[in-house]
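tool=predict chain=A
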Amino acid sequence: MEAVRLDKLVKWCRGNITSNAILKRYCYGISTDSRDIRKGDIFIALQGEKFDGASFVNSALRDGAVAAITPKNFQSSSKKIIRVTDTLKALGDIARRYRKEFNVYVIGITGSDGKTTTKEFIKKTLSARYNISGTEGNFNNAVGLPLSVFSIDKNTGICVLEMGMNSKDEIRYLGNIARPQAGIITTVGPAHIGSFENISSIAEAKAELMETLVGEKFCMLNYDCRFYPFFREQAPAKVLSFGVKKGADIRGAFEKEENDSFTFHVQGSSYPYKINFWNTSIIYPALAAIRFGRKFEIPEKNIGEIFSKIHPLPGRGKVYHTGKITVIDESYNSNPNSLKASLSS
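tool=predict ok
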């Protein structure tokens, strides 16, 4: 994160201060976890299911926080308190305004499954030529995405952000913070179906990402998804599709499948891409990454070399060979679509 003067930050979150003395100081990071405070950070006291961040304000200040953003009813004699109506909203407002400070290309990714893998493939591919920032792990909600935005600095060329949701309007909220020039919708499935009337409602919520696109408003859509025609109709500008079915703009074709890997090529090219995953559905994140690699002029051979070094993470398809037994670790909290894709591979 680049340094931000507190008078600017206070305006961004519409905060109330007890002393003007802090306004000329600088913030060098944002944290919602008092255990991770570094000198010069702002601590934002969020209300969680198990913990109340306000209980940790004093320890955060002792550990070097330059100030703390708290609920308006927080009682303290400290002159380093910035009080707001809603600390979660304040986090989002600060991230939204911080994002506007930078002329950086942002890629937003959503979908019922495949978000994290797609994000990782794209980040690793584009890092061959650009300074990349973005989501770490699956920090993709109303807390995680704003914190990921703060990874942008003056050296960032491209930022890749993952956006998750549990209900309607969440993707719109996250997209308005991220302001992506490009958006990817991976798939639509029954994840979080309890919050929606049906899967069509989930597709409508995913489409909110396209409403928030800025600049060139470039959309990458999964041609094999049954909601592709709906998304294509909703797209505000240029659309390119990826998939394995005939008709996709960038179409993958399997060449060889083995226990721990598979090889494919893209229609129009004979270059063989080897993917060190047993789950062949990983072809979709790879195809999206290839298209963005081409867009940003990463040579095909370089992309292939990058793919060959990507391996499954624990809980996300990592394979263990123990004598005569092979264990496939898919223990991460996957959704039904992800599990189905794994079992059918």
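The chain has two domains: 4-94, 102-308. The chain has a mean pLDDT of 93.
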